[in-house]
Design a protein that fits this description.
The complex is a heterodimer of chains A (99) and B (408).
Chain A: E1 2-8, E2 11-17, H1 25-37, E3 42-49, H2 55-71, E4 74-78, H3 82-90, H4 93-96
Parallel strand pairs in A: 2-3, 3-4
Antiparallel strand pairs in A: 1-2
Chain B: H1 15-23, E1 26-30, H2 34-46, E2 51-55, H3 58-67, E3 72-76, H4 84-93, E4 102-106, H5 111-120, E5 124-127, H6 132-171, H7 177-187, E6 189-196, E7 204-211, E8 215-223, H8 228-243, H9 251-262, E9 272-280, E10 285-291, E11 297-299, E12 304-306, E13 325-328, E14 334-338, H10 341-344, H11 354-367, H12 374-384, E15 394-401
Parallel strand pairs in B: 1-2, 1-3, 3-4, 4-5
Antiparallel strand pairs in B: 6-15, 7-8, 8-9, 9-10, 10-13, 11-12, 11-14, 14-15
The chains are: A alpha/beta (99), B alpha/beta (408).
Chain lengths: 99, 408
């Protein structure tokens, strides 16, 4: 998994590439620390280039959501397709991550 | 409450403990010259080492080592009867002493001799005349290494034993073979099942039980992540299920009860995907509710259809809105549940199978008339393409309902 943070004003977008799985735990936590550094109202996770997310990956989204609630910004996901879209729908996490 | 402070029992590589072991280490000094023995002994005692023993030639050394194995040997090379080289070779040939540190001391130091000494099995070399601080430092270093390795090996072996024990305990959470056989006989079904943890301990669990009014209940669940943390949550969830026996007849209520009870205990980011259904084994009616588990399949000899397992995983919100769905499992049909590794594991060509791919595999198996051994046929094909170990735990449970012609 790789990510790039695009930041314009109070809006940030995290563009992911690669799979988001159990083994990406460390880089995902680094991402959350990176987001913590910037002052934002809103953050969008762009999953257009993600092919796979497993249950641990979904768990990381939940952690991000909790961080957002604590820090007072909104989180949403966009661009999910194929397996990733099915996983978000199947687990109804798309409802929790709709901004 | 008293503060809990780290002590020797929690500090497995504890410096203080290693130092104590080094000071009390049993050291055997082997030299045919009494003066040398005495000098080396004094040097080590001055260096804080207290447990020194002596042998005056190779033969005596081998006997002493056999009778009372030391932690380190300081060995002279040129001795009458059995030489230092011979002692080295004999010790290294013996499984019990292959790791014993042997510190060789010799006056005639040539490059060839050094090669010969290490070839014979010496751990290290010190030159005569003895430089006292150097000898003390080398002896100490080899003893520390030895005790550290022993300590780590003991720790690892202890952990391994604990994990084996824990795995046995976890396997006892799964339905017993005898329980399954009794259910099969009473309900006119076959429960084909498979469970494998990717680590010693797993985060998957499945179970089945008899219910009133000619029904059975079957669940498959998968805790997010894997390893010890996920495994501990399988114990937690298993114990919690027992508290909600009264709601087992209603899948949506059962999942709601579990989620409500477990939400406060699951760490942030942890949850369980789950599928639970009840089957009336006389009529074939099924009622089911899903909590984000992979979509189960109803498989006949002609077709495969997917059940809706959409639902918030267990343990994320306190009041999830699970819904009961109704369906039927006809005679000669199979209800197949599985954990996500089947569709998420990487295939030899680098892709992952996905739900569509798995459905195709299932269709192929049933079209060749092998529906009744669906799980074993599927896994045979799955493992054939798995070069490495599994990336996650694997569970597969198929309930095959006997046909009308089945001989009871």
């Amino acid at each position: 998994m790789d990510y790039r943070i695009e930041n314009s004003g109070k809006d940030a977008c995290v563009v992911f590439t690669g799979d988001i799985t159990f083994s990406e735990n460390v880089s995902f936590r680094q991402l959350l620390r990176d987001i913590e550094e910037i002052d934002i109202d809103k953050c969008v996770f762009d999953l257009t280039n993600v092919d796979m997310v497993d249950s641990a990956g979904l768990g990381m989204f939940l952690i991000a959501r909790e961080q957002a609630e604590t820090a007072g910004w909104r989180i949403s996901v966009k661009g999910a397709q194929g397996h990733v879209a099915s996983m978000l729908k199947l687990t109804k996490l798309s409802d929790l991550l709709d901004g | 409450m008293a503060d809990i402070k780290p002590d020797e029992t929690t500090d497995f590589s504890g410096k203080a403990r290693i130092e104590g072991s080094v000071n009390n280490a049993r050291i055997l000094i082997v030299d045919d010259m009494a003066l040398m023995r005495q000098m080396i002994g004094m040097c080590l005692i001055r260096g804080g080492l207290e447990n020194i023993h002596y042998a005056s030639d190779g033969d005596e050394a081998l006997t002493a080592i056999e009778e009372n194995p030391p932690d380190l040997v300081v060995l002279d090379l040129n001795m009458p009867r059995v030489s230092g080289y011979e002692v080295c070779r004999k010790l290294r040939a013996d499984e019990r002493f292959k790791d014993l540190p042997i510190l060789v001391q010799s006056a005639s130091e040539t490059p060839e001799e050094r090669v010969e000494v290490f070839k014979a099995g010496a751990t290290d070399f010190v030159s005569k005349p003895i430089n006292q601080p150097e000898l003390q430092a080398r002896v100490r270093m080899h003893l520390e290494n030895r005790f550290l390795i022993t300590s780590l090996t003991d720790f690892m072996e202890g952990m391994k034993r604990e994990l084996v024990l824990a795995r046995e305990m976890q396997e006892s959470l799964l339905p017993e073979t005898i329980t399954i056989s009794e259910m099969e006989e009473q309900c006119g079904i076959v429960i084909e099942n498979y469970y494998q943890a990717c680590f010693e301990l797993g985060g998957d669990l499945w179970g089945c039980w008899m219910l009133p009014e000619d029904k059975i209940g079957v669940f498959v669940l998968d805790i997010s992540g894997h390893g010890v943390g996920a495994a501990l949550n399988t114990f937690r969830i298993h114990a919690t299920m027992a508290r909600f026996k009264w709601s087992m007849q209603d899948p949506a209520t059962f999942l709601t009860d579990l989620s409500r009870a477990l939400k406060p205990h699951f760490a942030l980011g942890q949850f369980a995907t789950m599928f639970y259904y009840t089957l009336n084994y006389k009529t074939g009616d099924i009622v089911y509710a899903g909590a984000g588990a992979p979509r189960p399949m109803i498989v006949s000899d002609k077709s495969v259809r997917l059940l809706d397992s959409t639902g918030m995983p267990i343990g994320i919100v306190k009041k999830p809105d699970y819904i009961n769905h109704e369906d039927r499992l006809e005679k000669d049909e199979t209800l197949f549940c599985y954990s996500d590794v089947l569709v998420e594991a990487v295939q030899p060509d680098g892709s992952f199978l996905g739900e569509d791919g798995l459905v195709k595999w299932v269709e192929k198996i049933v079209s060749s008339g092998e529906r009744k051994s669906l799980v074993s046929k599927l896994l045979w094909r799955f493992f054939d393409g798995q070069a490495e170990s599994l990336p996650d735990d694997l569970t597969a449970v198929a309930v095959h309902r006997h046909g009308p012609d089945h001989d009871e």
